[in-house]
Amino acid sequence: MKYCCVLFALIFTICPSRTLFAVERPNIVFILADDLGYGELGCYGQQKIKTPHIDRLASEGMRFTRHYSGAPVCAPSRNVLMTGKHLGHAEIRGNRQASLSFPQYKEGQHPIAAETVTIVQLFQQNGYATAAIGKWGLGPVGSSGAPDQHGFDFFYGYNCQAVAHSYYPRYLWRNNKQEEINPQPIPGGAKQLTGEVTMEKYIGQQYAPDLMVKEATNFINQNKEKPFFLYLAFIEPHVAMHPPVDRVNDYPKEWDTEPYRGDSGYLPHPRPRAAYAAMITDLDDHVGKVMKSLAENQLTEKTLVVFTSDNGATHEGKAGQHFHIGGADPAFFNSTLDLKGYKGSVYEGGLRVPMIVRYPGKIKAGSTNETPGYFADWLSTLCAAASISNKQETDGENLWPTMIDATQKITHRPMVWVYPEYSGQVAVNFGDIKVLKTKLLTKKPAEWEVYDLSKDRGETKNLATDQPQWIEKAKAVLKEQTDNNLLFPMKLPE
Asked: Rounded mean pLDDT of 6-35?
């Protein structure tokens, strides 16, 4: 008996964080792109933009073809991701600045409540080191929604989405303190309607994304001996477009026949198509650096990596020009493939996003999964992957069984979007059938639309007249699944 006790003591001394007798819990690296379209990666059909690292991630993991964001825009989508509550139940349904309700805050979006429990808090309570690096958008520093109030040991990056429109800001946040990185910052918006547009005019000293990637690899290095949850909310390819000049020059000059002058918002650029591609390749490079850090620390086999986007590709710009907001040109890149709509829309192009999961030995390499799912599923799914008990009421499903065995079919509850911005929109996804209605907050709401996504993912044939029963089902789901929300009120269709 004495020798057994010595043996147990020796094992725990050698392996304090990953003992032979403990449940093996993977590290989690959750990578969230910003406004990345469904068709903007090589592994999803992109022909012009180079994304070798993300394509490799897909070849070594599982690529989902029917995954959806939590909302058509940034803050509410991240709220759904963090809480497992869809937009009908979410407290944040839109991009509202915190200062509208709390004048003491000069930046940041409306904060989530102090009592709101996030997925990261559950991991922190179970012994995980946690970090958020990138863009937050769910409450200013010092508010009830600040990252340190919701499970993050460490935060570095942009707290405010509006500040994140600049890639050369004056400062980034390190926990609750501002660190100056550009004494002469480059604002995220300007117009230049005449004269030569140059890249150099809009380039600053310190490129924020490079600093954030460095912090991500530092976090991995510092926490390699214990389980960690790293949330990487990168800002690419959200406009404004001002990537470093050398990265733009990796793409053909022949692509751009005219400059973007800033007249649809954000910054001018002489080579907008090349700049946009450079931003996505830059995002890909970030993923490569993170994966390299995991490999160097011998964590590849111990880490579940997720890659997805917060919503679809950048929406249309000023009437009469082909440029979208900020100079993006989704038509040139076929950014949504055959999907209808863009960011801000409950059509497929606004909600359907790339999603890749990789976990060697658990998830089959090079596999594709057509299981429908969305951001409300992540809380249950990641808790299941890490064997963490979850007592939170959520609106999502646990997708982990189909990730480790694609033959396992998940019967998903109706997926719900109640979105009061962009004239008011609702959508309910029943799997193959999707029902939606737009312009709800206008004097003349649009008619109901019904689509069979299994045959018509481009939403070209409205079946509302032929299959009206789906409209009644959608009305019932919306009535049952939509809470009153005084901050983000929404008039449901009768």
From this structure: 64
Q: What domains can you pick out in the chain, each with its CATH number?
A: 23-413 (3.40.720.10), 414-494 (3.30.1120.10)
CA 217 to centroid of chain Cα atoms = 20
Q: Which of 22-26, 48-52, 281-285, 381-385 comes out lowest in average pLDDT? A: 22-26
Number of other CB atoms surrounding residue 406 within 10 Å: 16
Contact 353, 52 (CB under 8 A): no
Q: State CA 148 to chain mean position distance.
A: 20
- Going by C-alpha positions, the residue among 227, 221, 214, 218 that lies closest to residue 297 is 221
* List of residues 6+ apart from 166 with CB closer than 8 A: 185, 186, 187, 188, 208, 240
pLDDT band at 2 (very low <50, low <70, confident <90, very high): very low
Buried b (16+ CB within 10 A) or exposed e, 180-207: ebbeebbebeeebeeeebebeebebeeb
pTM equals 0.95
- pLDDT tens by residue, 52-101: 999 999 999 999 999 999 999 999 999 999 999 999 999 999 999 999 99
Cβ 150 vs Cβ 82: under 8 Å:
yes
Query: For all residues of the chain together, what is the average pLDDT?
Result: 95
73-78-84-89 Cα dihedral, nearest 10 degrees: -50
Choose among 247, 330, 309, 314: nearest CA to 281.
247
Q: Can you tell me the distance from the alpha carbon of 242 to that of 167, in angstroms, rounded to the nearest whole number?
A: 7
List b or e across 116-147, with b for residues whose CB sees 16 or more CB atoms inside 10 angstroms.
Answer: bbbbbbbbbeeebbbbbbbbbbbbbbbbbbbb
